[in-house]
Amino acid sequence: MRRSRIILEMVVLTHRFLRGTGFFRDGIMLIAIELLFLRRFWVYRLIRGLLLWMVVIINIIHITPPDNFQSLASAG
């Protein structure tokens, strides 16, 4: 029960952070890999940590909000 709640929170956080950046598909793939290795707990923790760092790095790179990015792309 506790493990499935952690997975649900990771899915929600990943979707929330990656939705506006264009990296949502990569997030889905990482979650799939994470679920494959769920039985090996140390691998699960490692991949979860890497996923969180990837989300942080993407948010640092993509500081521009998605709405402004879309308006800039359509104007150019």
Write a concise keyword list for the protein shown above.
mainly alpha, 4 helices
Straight-line distance between termini: 49 Å
Mean pLDDT across every amino acid position = 65
| Class of secondary structure makeup | mainly alpha
The arrangement of helices and strands along the chain is HHHH
- How helical, in percent, are the residues? over 70%
- Overall geometry comes to globular
DSSP strand content: under 5%
Unreliable segments of 5+ consecutive residues: none
Rg calc:
14 Å
Number of helices: 4
Major sheet summary line:
none
How many distinct beta strands?
Answer: 0
> In total, how many domains does the architecture comprise?
1
Describe the secondary-structure layout.
Blueprint: H1 2-18, H2 24-36, H3 41-61, H4 66-75
Helix pairs in contact: 1-2, 1-3, 2-3
What does this molecule look like?
By secondary structure, the protein is an all-alpha fold. The protein has one domain (2-75). Helix content is 80%, strand content 0%. It has helices at 2-18, 24-36, 41-61, 66-75. It is globular and about 35 Å long.
Summarize the structure.
With 76 residues, this protein is an all-alpha fold. The chain contains four helices and no strands.
